[in-house]
Amino acid sequence: MSSHLLAGLLDARTDRLVTVAGTTLSHADLLGAAGAVAESLVGRQRVAVSATPTMTTVVGVTGALLAGVEVVPVPPDSGSAELRHMLTDAAPDAWLGGAPDETTLPTIDVDEAARASYEPGVVDSERIAFVLYTSGTTGLPKGVLLSRRALTAGLDGLIDAWGWTGDDTVVHGLPLFHVHGLVLGALGPLRVGGSLVHVGKGTPEAYAGVAGTMYFAVPTIWSRIAEAPEHAAALRDARLLVSGSAALPVPVFERVRELTGHEVAERYGMSETLITVATRADGVRRAGWVGVPVDGVETRVVGDDGAAVAHDGESVGRLEVRGPTLFSGYLNRPEATAESFTDDRWFRTGDVAVIDAAGNHRIVGRESVDLIKSAGYRIGAGEIESTLLGHPAVAECAVIGVPDPDLGQRIVAFVVAHSPVSAAELTSHVGEELSAHKRPREVVFVDALPRNEMGKVQKKRLAQ
Questions:
Q1: Confidence band (pLDDT; 50, 70, 90) for 287?
Q2: Domains, the chain, ranges and CATH?
Q3: Of 57, 213, 239, 293, which has the highest C-beta tally within 10 A?
Q4: Using CA atoms, how far apart are residues 125 and 154, in angstroms rounded to an integer?
């Protein structure tokens, strides 16, 4: 396959279609519209895109990639504090497409009906394609720098693992500001030369309403499909069902298999690594196991002493990764970048895992309890805590994720208040400052937080 990131799109076929929010463009028309965007970006270095699930987003992002311009995908539900942080940290030249009302940056229009010719130019493979903001366990989100090299390697690894071809039609309803929906779900079909249908909201009805060959979803969506037999049956003709962003519960795996005849293929990755481990289309699928390293990627699990942990399917160790899919660092955060790698240049994922004798991986969980995975989102507890502490009624707080059969984990905030305040008011406060999906699902008022002798909040006790 061509080294160009969007190799399949450059064939400009009219029988390969991209549908988003009810708008359909052939690859030829998408290339023409994106080519017009690329022309408008001459001289630009970096642009922000409000990553709504629309054709405008797909055309805008594609045009920026054709032009070699960096893209900052901004969650459309970003709160004011979050938005200010991203724009200050990334310092984009302009907004591409629609922009929030409060921005003062210039705006560059995206016209889905425009057409311009495009001649592929030489763009350094190490050139940054995306500045993708991701929440850690503390503080505001960090900007992950993803190069064209990393994106190409990551997609090619999945093309190999999943037998992905231009004859496939990918169906999903995932956000276009995360790796799963944006890189796999949107760029994947454009690299392999296949079709895409973004269904908007990822409901069982929406997935069942599209005849695709590959369906991408997070466990929350799969759990809802498992509860809708009439819609699940429509997926029987699919070639591959894929789940990611969080662990798929075993009962959901089994119920989907019963209803569709397919065992869901799980995979593992993060913003900093893209997808590094995946269940192969021709491999054995087991509930709770995420497969083997994709082509070019190496993994290892190590103990507290740094020594390798046995690949016996039971011994737990810290998961570390290296390979061409890794990010190029955190924007403006050289110290954080350095700390994320070992002395021999393996990336510390922060997850703990087991590996069996055949190389299959099972993710056990985080080293810390502060990274919450809810409805496919990775959410930092510290960011929510900082926001809650900004409310005048909050004296202390601690945020955790607790198991939820639908969301995977739901966000629960434990709050010590020094003046009267309602749970609804605090939830609304978080929603105004941060993304909507970061609002606590539950607020528990307590007289004090459990702490150890060093004063650290004991979150495991809260979880119990």
A1: confident
A2: 9-266 (3.40.50.12780), 371-463 (3.30.300.30)
A3: 57
A4: 13
